[in-house]
Amino acid sequence: MANHKSALKRMRQNQKRRLRNRIRKTRIKNLIRAFEESLKAKDLNAAEEKLKAAQKFIDKTASKGTLHWKTAARKISRLYKKLNNLKKAS
User: Fold this and answer.
1) What residues contact 10, with CB distance under 8 A and at least 6 apart?
2) pTM for the full model?
3) CA within 20 to 30 Å of 43's CA: 10, 24, 33, 82, which one?
4) 76 burial class (0-12, 13-18, 19+ CB within 10 angstroms)?
Protein backbone atom coordinates (compact mmCIF):
# COMPACT_ATOMS: atom_id res chain seq x y z
CA MET A 1 0.00 0.00 0.00
CA ALA A 2 1.28 3.43 -0.90
CA ASN A 3 2.14 5.85 1.90
CA HIS A 4 3.25 9.02 0.14
CA LYS A 5 0.73 11.63 -0.88
CA SER A 6 1.89 11.54 -4.49
CA ALA A 7 1.70 7.73 -4.59
CA LEU A 8 -1.86 7.80 -3.26
CA LYS A 9 -2.82 10.31 -5.95
CA ARG A 10 -1.14 8.12 -8.59
CA MET A 11 -3.21 5.15 -7.39
CA ARG A 12 -6.42 7.13 -7.74
CA GLN A 13 -5.45 8.29 -11.23
CA ASN A 14 -4.53 4.78 -12.33
CA GLN A 15 -7.83 3.42 -11.10
CA LYS A 16 -9.79 6.04 -13.05
CA ARG A 17 -7.77 5.35 -16.19
CA ARG A 18 -8.14 1.60 -15.81
CA LEU A 19 -11.93 1.91 -15.57
CA ARG A 20 -12.09 4.31 -18.51
CA ASN A 21 -9.94 2.02 -20.66
CA ARG A 22 -12.03 -1.01 -19.73
CA ILE A 23 -15.22 0.81 -20.76
CA ARG A 24 -13.71 1.78 -24.10
CA LYS A 25 -12.42 -1.72 -24.86
CA THR A 26 -15.78 -3.26 -24.00
CA ARG A 27 -17.56 -0.79 -26.27
CA ILE A 28 -15.20 -1.70 -29.12
CA LYS A 29 -15.98 -5.39 -28.64
CA ASN A 30 -19.72 -4.67 -28.66
CA LEU A 31 -19.48 -2.56 -31.82
CA ILE A 32 -17.50 -5.29 -33.58
CA ARG A 33 -19.97 -7.93 -32.44
CA ALA A 34 -22.90 -5.90 -33.80
CA PHE A 35 -21.07 -5.48 -37.11
CA GLU A 36 -20.40 -9.20 -37.40
CA GLU A 37 -24.03 -10.03 -36.61
CA SER A 38 -25.16 -7.80 -39.46
CA LEU A 39 -22.66 -9.60 -41.70
CA LYS A 40 -24.17 -12.96 -40.73
CA ALA A 41 -27.61 -11.59 -41.59
CA LYS A 42 -26.09 -10.45 -44.93
CA ASP A 43 -27.46 -6.94 -44.47
CA LEU A 44 -24.89 -4.82 -46.32
CA ASN A 45 -26.40 -1.42 -45.52
CA ALA A 46 -26.55 -2.09 -41.79
CA ALA A 47 -23.08 -3.61 -41.88
CA GLU A 48 -21.61 -0.54 -43.56
CA GLU A 49 -23.20 1.80 -41.02
CA LYS A 50 -22.04 -0.31 -38.10
CA LEU A 51 -18.56 -0.47 -39.59
CA LYS A 52 -18.40 3.32 -39.83
CA ALA A 53 -19.44 3.64 -36.18
CA ALA A 54 -16.90 1.02 -35.12
CA GLN A 55 -14.11 2.62 -37.14
CA LYS A 56 -14.82 6.04 -35.68
CA PHE A 57 -14.77 4.76 -32.12
CA ILE A 58 -11.67 2.58 -32.63
CA ASP A 59 -9.77 5.55 -34.07
CA LYS A 60 -10.91 7.76 -31.22
CA THR A 61 -9.84 5.15 -28.66
CA ALA A 62 -6.42 4.88 -30.30
CA SER A 63 -6.00 8.65 -30.23
CA LYS A 64 -6.71 8.63 -26.48
CA GLY A 65 -4.00 6.04 -25.94
CA THR A 66 -6.14 3.11 -24.85
CA LEU A 67 -5.18 1.14 -27.95
CA HIS A 68 -1.94 1.31 -29.88
CA TRP A 69 -2.47 2.93 -33.28
CA LYS A 70 -1.25 -0.17 -35.11
CA THR A 71 -3.67 -2.37 -33.17
CA ALA A 72 -6.50 -0.03 -34.14
CA ALA A 73 -5.43 -0.07 -37.79
CA ARG A 74 -5.28 -3.88 -37.78
CA LYS A 75 -8.76 -4.19 -36.28
CA ILE A 76 -10.26 -1.76 -38.80
CA SER A 77 -8.47 -3.47 -41.69
CA ARG A 78 -9.84 -6.87 -40.71
CA LEU A 79 -13.37 -5.50 -40.43
CA TYR A 80 -13.16 -3.95 -43.90
CA LYS A 81 -11.78 -7.20 -45.26
CA LYS A 82 -14.81 -9.08 -43.93
CA LEU A 83 -17.18 -6.57 -45.45
CA ASN A 84 -15.45 -6.70 -48.82
CA ASN A 85 -15.54 -10.50 -48.83
CA LEU A 86 -19.29 -10.38 -48.25
CA LYS A 87 -19.69 -7.87 -51.09
CA LYS A 88 -17.75 -10.14 -53.46
CA ALA A 89 -19.84 -13.15 -52.48
CA SER A 90 -23.14 -11.40 -53.09
Assistant:
1) 2
2) 0.89
3) 24
4) middle
Measure the CA dihedral 80/83/85/90, to 10°: -160
Amino acid 32 reads: I
Q: Which helix (H) or strand (E) holds 89?
A: helix 69-89
Q: Which amino acid is at 39?
A: L
Which pLDDT band holds residue 3 (cuts at 50, 70, 90)? confident
All structural domains of the chain? 5-89 (1.20.58.110)
Q: What is the rounded CA–CA span in Å between residue 74 and residue 80?
A: 10
Which letter does DSSP use for residue 90 in this model? -
Chain length of the chain: 90
Element (H, E) at 22: helix 5-40
